[in-house]
């Protein structure tokens, strides 16, 4: 269990009774299409925390970010207010500023149960870049805004690996608590290292960002019994096993070779130290004139096609191993599941997890999106994470600045 306080503690704190103003950091960062924000699971998840606080009679003041300065998705949060409102039993008011007299006046006229969303935190120059909590706490943004509220709640687990003002500055100057998303994400994503399991622990690892997941494998060697590999990382491990895959076949792409150069030493070390824990694909799938075709790994003599999924035999093997497991974790897709012809590996692994009684966590935006795309029920999984970078940090044992700020002694 974590050592930070939660909303339960906030509700029990007689110095911060209902009707007080609570500043809540959420993560509503979402895809932007034609200038409009697109709905995603983050709105629904954070709405649970917001609704709970609103129902309890707090004045709920929201902070969130969208994109980065200079990027196409760096836009105002006005549209986010409308999307969030669809998940709440109350209106979401919006002000196009983050601190100052206008914000103070807007906060001052809120009523118990009201929800007010402030402008994109990254439009405030004090938010970026990353710095230590003391430095961020001393910014005009934090000092000014904290004077208008009574407590701070951080619900933005998916941004908790960032040391930005809205994430680490306020716990130094306000009584601070974890929201429900922060609480549940933290407990689920650290379970693989902290939870005791009676049987086998399986982790399916894939995706295109091999560097991230290789670090996960290296860190969790003592906690996971079997790693089931697919995607780019699976090909790189096959390459280390003298199978002629895991390299770019065109000078126009750079998906494999750079990551191989960066990680080959660690991959070989993992294969030496944890060989009995690594399960590699025994067949791979590729596109043959618009149709799915498969080839046995041991019959590959050179890489002349792009592999887009683990093969059917491998998918069945992985699914069987998961059905016998006591816990199953997923990080990264095992194939290009957006194309149904190459969703076999990802879907069969997820369906096997859903069919069993094992403890399960599915992490990473792409993989969790497959649950919705292929009509699986997310309630069949113990936890479907909305975090990306923070999930990786948790699995690799790296500290999360937002968590550390909540765990530190506050005022």
How would you portray this structure in words?
- This protein is α/β, with parallel strands linked by helices and about 400 residues long.
- It folds into two domains: about 5-185 and about 400-405, 3-Layer(aba) Sandwich (Rossmann fold), CATH 3.40.50; about 190-380, Rossmann fold (3-Layer(aba) Sandwich).
- Helices cover about 35% and strands about 15% of the residues.
- It contains 17 helices and 17 strands.
- The chain has helices at about 5-10, 40-55, 80-85, 100-110, 135, 140-145, 165-170, 180-190, 190-195, 210-220, 230-240, 255-275, 310-325, 345-355, 365-375, 390-395, 400-405, and strands at about 20-25, 30-35, 35, 60-65, 90-95, 115, 150-155, 175-180, 200-205, 225-230, 280, 285-290, 290-295, 305-310, 325-330, 360-365, 385.
- A six-stranded parallel β-sheet has the order 5-6-4-1-7-8. It has a six-stranded parallel β-sheet with strand order 11-10-9-15-16-17, with helices on both faces. It has a three-stranded antiparallel β-sheet with strand order 13-12-14.
- Helix 10 runs parallel beside helix 12.
- It is elongated.
- The mean pLDDT is about 95.
- Keywords: ATP-binding, Cytoplasm, Glycolysis, Kinase, Nucleotide-binding, Transferase.
- One of its GO terms (biological process) is gluconeogenesis.
Describe how the helices and strands are arranged:
Blueprint: H1 7-12, E1 21-25, E2 32-33, E3 36-37, H2 41-55, E4 59-63, H3 78-85, E5 92-94, H4 101-108, E6 115-117, H5 133-137, H6 140-146, E7 151-154, H7 165-169, E8 176-178, H8 180-189, H9 191-194, E9 201-205, H10 210-219, E10 226-229, H11 231-240, H12 257-273, E11 278-279, E12 283-288, E13 291-296, E14 307-310, H13 312-323, E15 327-331, H14 344-355, E16 359-363, H15 365-373, E17 383-384, H16 389-396, H17 401-407
Parallel strand pairs: 1-4, 1-7, 4-6, 5-6, 7-8, 9-10, 9-15, 10-11, 15-16, 16-17
Antiparallel strand pairs: 2-3, 12-13, 12-14
Helix pairs in contact: 10-12, 13-14
